[in-house]
Amino acid sequence: MISRVHCKMNKTEFSSAKVTRNPTLCSPHRRRKRVCNEATSWWSKKIPESLISEAQIEKLLELATATVEFFALRTPTNTPTHRPQDLDEERTLTPVHDPVARLTRECALLRQRLDEADRRQSLCTCQGDSISTLHHPPLMRKTIDETRRELARTQAEMTKLQERCRLLERTLFETREILKVRDEELEKLKEKQADTRSLNNHDDREDEQSRSFVEQEDDGHPGSMLDENRALSKTTEVFMTRTDAWSGAQVLQAIHDLNSEILQFSAAATELCTFGSTSSSKVAIQATQDTASRLGPSMVRILSGRDHSQDPILVQLALQGCISTCVARALSVFCMGFPTKADAVLTQIYSHMYAAEPQPTSSRWRALTHRHIHTMYPYLSDYSANELAETMYRWSADILVVAGCQGYGKGSLGSRDGLRSRFGEQIRRITKTACKLAQVTKEEIMSTCFEIVAMEHGDAFDPRRMFDTFGEYGTSRGAIITTTELGVRCKTHKSREIAGTEDFATEIRMLMPPKVVLDSVLDFVDPR
C-alpha cells in the first residue's frame, strides 16, 4: 500500500544526483540522456518497486526529465565552454518553457490519484472484512427463504416418490410371484386334463370294441339294456377315480379348531359378565321363552334357578351348547342361507338319490347342485355367514339375560350390540369355519359323506355315540341337557351282492363322538 510519494525534491538532494560535468559530453541530447538514466537509478533506490506501479514510474521519469532540462538550462555552473560549432547547435535548439507550473500540476494530479487509490483500497479492505457481517436486504432475504422452502418441498416430494417407488417395486415382485404360482397351477391342470382326456379316449375305444364284440356274438339280444349298464358303470368309474380335496384327518382337525373357538368365546363372555338375581322384566321373560324353545326347559331351569355370581361354569356350558347347536343346525341343511322351502325340496331329492344310487353318483349330484346354487347367487355365502352370526348373538344374549346378567340394555353384554362390539372377531372366525366346512363336505368330498353331529336336548345318553363331559367325575345319568362339543360322523353308501342281486347298504362310523352335558352335572357343579 503506497501511502504517498513526494515528487518534489529539494535542490541539495537533486544536486547529489547530478552528474559531474564531463568535457567529452558536449552534445545536449547525450547529456540529457545520461542525466535521465542516473535519475532513474536514483528513484529506483529511493522507492521500492513493490510500492509503485510501472505507469507511475514512467510518469515520474517524465517529470524528472523535465526537471533536469529546466535546471540544466538555468544553472550557471552547468554552462560549458562551447566551441563555435557547439554554440551554433545550441542556438538552433527549441526554447524550453518553464516546467514549474507543469511539474506542480503533475505532482498534484499524482497526489490526487494516489489518495484515490488509498481510499479505494481502504474501502475494499473494509468491505472485505465486514461483508460477512452485513445482513441481506429484505428482497434478497425473501428470495432466499422462498428458495429454501421450495427446496424443502422438493426434498419431501422426492422422499415420497422414493417410498412409492419402493412400494411399487415390492408390489410388482409379489405380483410376479403370484403369477408364477398361478402359471404352475395352470400347467398342472393342463396335465391333469390331458391325462383325463387320454383316459376317456381309451375308455371310448374299449366301449366301441366291447359294443362291436357283443353285436357280433349275440345279435338277437336287445342292446338298450347293455348300453344302460355300460353307461352306469362308466359313470361310476369316473366318479370313483376322483380324489377328495380334503382327507378325513383334515375334517377332524377343522372340527377340533371350531370347538376350541366356541370354548374360548364362551369362557371370555362368562368372565366379563356380572351376574345377579334374575329379572322379571318383559325382556327377561321373552328371553326365557325363546331359550326354552331352542335348548329345552332343563337348560332354562338350571340357568334361572341358581346364583352364578360365584361360579358361572353352568353359564359357560350353556353358551357352548348354544353355539354348538346353532352351528350343527346350520350345517344340517342342504345349502346354508337358501330359502327353507327350496332347501327342503333339495334335501328330499338328495335323500332319495342317496338311497337309490351309488355313492359317487349322489355325491356328484350334490356337489354340482351346491356349486351352481352359489354361482347363481354369488352373495349367498356372505348372507348365510351374517345370518349365522346374528343368530349366535341373539341366542347368547338371551342366555346371559336368563342367567341374571346385570344390565341388558344397549351396549351391555346382555344385548346383541354389546356382544358384537366385544366378540365380533371371534364370532366371525366361528362362522367362517362353519361356512368352509359346509363347502368342503358338500362339494369337495365324493367318496363318503361327513356329517357334523350335535345331540338334541332330552335324548337318552348312549355311550357308543356320545361322550359325557363330566363322566370322569362320577356316574353318568339322566337325559341330555346340551352338546358342548361337536362331533363328526361318516356315512358311506356301498353296494353288495346278496343271492345274485345287487343291493346297497349304508355304513356309518362315528369318527369323533360329540361331548354332552347330562342332568347329573348338577351333582358335581352345584350339589345341594
Automatic annotation (TrEMBL):
Residue ranges with Basic and acidic residues bias: 192-210
The annotated region (Disordered) lies at 192-230
Does Coiled coil count among this protein's keywords?
Answer: yes
Query: What UniProt keywords apply to this chain's record, in alphabetical order?
Result: Coiled coil
User: Which protein, by its recorded name, is this?
Assistant: Uncharacterized protein
Q: Domain of life here?
A: Eukaryota
Coiled-coil annotated spans: 144-171
